[in-house]
Amino acid sequence: MLLKLTILPGDGIGPEVTEGATRVLETVAESFGHQLHLTRKDIGGAALLSSKDPLPPDTLQTCLSAQAVLLGAVGGPAFDDFPSHLRPESGLLKLRRKLGAFANLRPAVCYSAIAHRSPLRADLIRGTDILIVRELLGGLYFGEPRLIQGASGDRAATNTMRYREPEVDRIARVAFELARSRRRKLTSVDKANVLECSRLWREVVTEVAQDFPDIALSHMYVDSAAMALVMRPADFDVLLTENMFGDILSDEVGGVVGSLGLLASASIGGPIGLYEPVHGSAPDIAGRGIANPLGAILSCALLLRYSFRLEREAACIEWAVGRVLESGNRTADLARTGEMPIGTTEMSQKVCDAVTELARAGSVQRAAQEQSV
Ligand code: IPM
Ligand code: MG
Question: How many domains does the chain have?
Answer without folding.
Answer: 2
